[in-house]
Design a protein that fits this description.
Helix content: 40-55%
Distance between the termini: 51 Å
CATH topology of the largest domain: Rossmann fold
Structural class: alpha/beta
Mean pLDDT: 89
CATH superfamily of the largest domain: P-loop containing nucleotide triphosphate hydrolases
CATH architecture of the largest domain: 3-Layer(aba) Sandwich
Number of domains: 2
Largest sheet: 6 strands, parallel
Order of helices and strands: EHEHEHEHHHHHHEHHHHEH
């Protein structure tokens, strides 16, 4: 069997194959943390003192037209420092982990070629993990097949699709909840496309990992209750800015349903339910806040499994100074950004 092609570009300038002992990988900063931990503000603070370009690691910010609920950087921030991997696809389209890894590695390579440091900032922990560990050789997403699976699910229900997965791939079915339509769909898709269980493919060695020296920073709240207050304040601010109108406009313009990846995003899912008159405004708020708190909990669980990272209390008053000092200690050369 032939080796899978690498998903990232390698050049003689970045990897000297003739002298492996002399290989030095360029630095990249990982700025990770749960939702509402202040990642965007710290990223801009880093950009004021180091020659970086920001690469978004956010599975929701790839969607165009979804600005308020994804907390995208404003026009002033975008003008101040280059941002990458934002507004890549329309709300009715899909974006896979494999696409992100490829796009991120291309962006990182181009940033490094310009003499700058890639600063990867976001809260989609799976993206960070796949960058570090490499991808398994799973087949890419197939939109036609996904529509067929969705149509079958609309007719029979996702519990029945989970039963089908149980027959095709018992190991995957055991770890995927019957209510998790997104993962059921992907596991079935892989089974159909590869002709073998996804769990079997995942056991095989992964593609090569990250060809960079990762400086990993994690923003962890010292007080979970304070983070929850931030989450509540931010969601109320999103509603004030027009989140409901944003979702309504997207709903009117694109062919979507509650199973569309864009409308599975936290906040958007609950507003969609409100617009469909499935819940009232008060319930929408409660459900959105509960879902966001659960998201933050999952993000923190991912972070706790991450190795060789430096933790900072995202609630600390001197957080910017702490982060700047740590980056200087790693050997990064500071440079003024005009």
């Amino acid at each position: 069997m032939s080796r899978p092609r690498p998903v990232y570009p390698l050049t003689e300038q970045s990897v000297k194959l003739e002298r492996p002992e002399a290989v030095t990988f360029p630095p990249v900063i990982f700025l990770m943390g749960p939702t509402a931990s202040g990642k965007s503000g710290i990223a801009l603070e880093i950009a004021r003192h180091f020659p970086v370009e920001i690469v978004s690691v956010d599975s929701a910010q790839v969607f165009r037209h979804m600005n308020i609920g994804t907390a995208k950087p404003d026009a002033e921030s975008m003008a101040f420092i280059p941002h990458h991997l934002i507004d890549l696809i329309e709300p009715h389209e899909c974006y896979s982990v494999a696409q992100f890894v490829n796009d991120a590695l291309v962006a990182m390579h181009e940033i490094t070629e310009r003499g700058n440091i890639p600063l990867l900032a976001g809260g989609t922990m799976l993206y960070f993990r796949m960058l570090l560990e490499g991808l398994s050789a799973l087949p890419p997403a197939n939109s036609s097949l996904r529509r067929q699976i969705e149509a079958k699910a609309e007719q029979n229900g996702w519990h029945e699709m989970h039963n089908e997965l149980l027959q095709l791939d018992p190991a995957s079915a055991a770890r995927i909840k019957p209510t998790d339509s997104q993962r059921i769909q992907r596991a079935l898709e892989v089974c159909y496309l590869a002709g073998k269980p996804m769990s079997e493919i995942l056991k095989k060695p992964r593609n090569a990992g990250l060809p960079y020296r990762a400086i990993k920073i994690a923003l962890i709240p010292g007080d979970r209750g304070a983070l929850h207050q931030r989450i509540a304040q931010r969601f109320e601010a999103m509603l004030t800015l027009g989140l409901i109108d944003e979702v309504r406009a997207i709903r009117d313009k694109f062919c979507l349903n509650d199973a569309s990846p864009s409308m599975r995003c936290v906040g958007y899912r609950q507003v969609w339910m409100y617009l469909e008159k499935e819940i009232n405004a008060a319930t929408m708020r409660e459900m959105a806040l509960a879902a966001t708190r659960q998201l933050a909990k999952r993000q923190l669980t991912w972070l706790r499994s991450m190795k060789e990272m430096r933790e900072f209390d995202c609630l600390a008053e001197n957080l910017p100074e702490q982060v700047r000092g740590y980056l200087a200690d790693t050997g990064l050369k500071a440079a003024a950004v005009s």
